Amino acid sequence: MEPLHTIWLIISIFCVAFTFVFFYLFFKNLRSEVKLIENVKEFKANVKIVYVEAIGDRWYLYDKIHDHFICQAPTEKELLETANSMFPNMKILLTSKDTIIKQ
What we know:
The chain is of the alpha+beta class. The chain has 2 helices and 4 strands; from the N terminus they run αβββαβ. The protein has a domain at 47-95.
């Protein structure tokens, strides 16, 4: 009967150790996921992702995420100056129209 108690004791200790390691790694991963979500929210609040389209003699600026028109100008330089004045506290990130952005 003594060896059976020893085996159960070893199994119990192993289960407790496994549970402790599992919960430690789970909460460590959860904490990093929360930080990642906070970083994405901060990025979205500080960066405007846009693309430029030239049609004829006009330049058009569109929001890449929502595909909304933002502004237009006769030159690309004036277009970017207008965008910077419209969003003074944000950085403007230019992408191509074909770039795929996952939300």
